[in-house]
């Protein structure tokens, strides 16, 4: 079972992200090929687990049940991209994202707690954690002519306010890959208390 642990984004934030995505859809007319993330499935990945044998899922649920993080607020704001670079020095874009500003320390603490529990179960340790929600992926390398309008749009949305939400749940999700995109299913929900 392909799976990951995540925080779902609120309905209000997903609606706002859908509006922001529409601003990038217009850029596709210039020949840019973008693969948009379904806004109704948007989340902050806390830990990607990969393929997990079905008979090991109970171990993950047990480990998640021991997480002691309290609920907290996050604020999403600003559009950015990977690989990270200053706008004037960017030569390549693979992912366009929305940043998480407020609540980053709490989110990192939650991720560290999950990381240590999953490492104990044998999952590889991830050194880097980037708090962001992916808007879209760039499907093919961009020419200089294609890169310019995308960088201009990112600069325009660099400080866009997306919204605030209260994080109260952490979810173990099953990911089924299909030709139309992934389908996510909640396998376990850990309430933060």
Summarize the structure.
Helices cover 28% and strands 35% of the residues. The protein is an alpha+beta fold.
Plain-language structure description:
This protein has 193 residues and is α+β, with helices and mostly antiparallel strands. The protein has a single domain, classed as Cyclic Phosphodiesterase, Chain: A. The chain contains 4 helices and 9 strands; from the N terminus they run E-H-E-E-H-E-E-H-E-H-E-E-E. Strands 2-6-5-4-7 form a 5-stranded antiparallel beta sheet. The protein has a 4-stranded antiparallel beta sheet with strand order 3-1-8-9, with helices on one face. Strand 8 (169-176) and strand 9 form a beta hairpin.
What structural category arises from helix and sheet content? alpha+beta
CATH topology: Cyclic Phosphodiesterase, Chain: A
Specify the oligomeric state: single chain
- Main sheet attributes: strand count, strand direction, barrel closure: 5 strands, antiparallel
Percent helix: 25-40%
Q: Outline, from the CA principal axes?
A: globular
The average pLDDT score comes to 93
Under CATH at level 1, the class stands as: Alpha Beta
Unreliable parts: none
**C-alpha Rg (nearest Å):** 17 Å
- Count of helical stretches: 4
Output the helix-strand order: EHEEHEEHEHEEE
What's the number of extended β-strand segments?
A: 9
The figure for the number of domains is 1
Q: Give the DSSP E fraction (strand runs of 2 or more residues).
A: 25-35%
**Major sheet strand order:** 2-6-5-4-7
Report how far the terminal alpha carbons are from each other. 28 Å
